Amino acid sequence: MSTDEHARMMSANQANWDARTPVHLGSRFYGLDQDLDPARWFASFEWDDLGELAGRDVLHLQCHLGTETIAFAQRGARAVGLDFSGASVAAANGIADKAGLDVSYVQANVYDAVEALGRRRFDVVYTGKGALCYLPDLDRWAGVVARLLRPGGRLYLVEFHPLLNSLGPKPGPGEGPELLLRHDYLGGDGAVHRDATHTYTDGPAVEGATDSYEWMHGIGEVVNALVQAGLTIRRLTESDELPWPRWPQMVRTPSGWWRLPEPRIPLLYGLLATR
């Protein structure tokens, strides 16, 4: 597929996320009208892998509303969030201001992040939980990440497992509790086009731009892209927990997240890499 075609699809995604933002701001899923609790979006193993963040320069790519970005600032990091949606960046700024936290947000496509951030380098680049599926070219993404990191800096990627993506992030119409493979696990077969009036959250229908495009990426593709960009893989963690109950038979865990009683399958993974 041509670069122009990818650019057209990413422009459609940008418009779609602009349209999603007001729905997400008012949703119970994000709960931003309640006490801000960004730590609830993190698995415990993330903090172990991220290490001490106080005084560190931390960049959150594809940050949307900045919920995780806020958590880094709360832990003493100099936090920066980047997202291609102008509506998301405006909302994230409002959330940070309300919380009294100093977080910088930049509107830019992730592929343009090096230039958009003035070639600034970071100690930590963080990304994930539904971000990579909106990127058509992981080799290009990994190259951007490598250029954003200082020598010795770390990438922390936390993503929904490709197996979960194959099962679908939400039930299909009339779907029961069965685990049904509905999408590819492996990438390489082009974009998946969606035209959805409702997003993964509760709330009203999205008004306006409802078209979006997603690309499937297996873990092997992610690992190879990072290695080819010169990064070293330090740890890969697979987890059977999610921050929301995807299936009705999921049970609450002591962490406050949810897991299937059976079968035990990976639903989320964390990958630590260093430059």
UniProtKB/TrEMBL annotation:
<dbReference type="GO" id="GO:0008168">
    <property type="term" value="F:methyltransferase activity"/>
</dbReference>
<protein>
    <submittedName>
        <fullName>Class I SAM-dependent methyltransferase</fullName>
    </submittedName>
</protein>
<keyword id="KW-0489">Methyltransferase</keyword>
<dbReference type="InterPro" id="IPR013217">
    <property type="entry name" value="Methyltransf_12"/>
</dbReference>
<dbReference type="GO" id="GO:0032259">
    <property type="term" value="P:methylation"/>
</dbReference>
<keyword id="KW-0808">Transferase</keyword>
<dbReference type="Pfam" id="PF08242">
    <property type="entry name" value="Methyltransf_12"/>
</dbReference>
<dbReference type="InterPro" id="IPR029063">
    <property type="entry name" value="SAM-dependent_MTases_sf"/>
</dbReference>
<feature type="domain" description="Methyltransferase type 12">
    <location>
        <begin position="59"/>
        <end position="155"/>
    </location>
</feature>
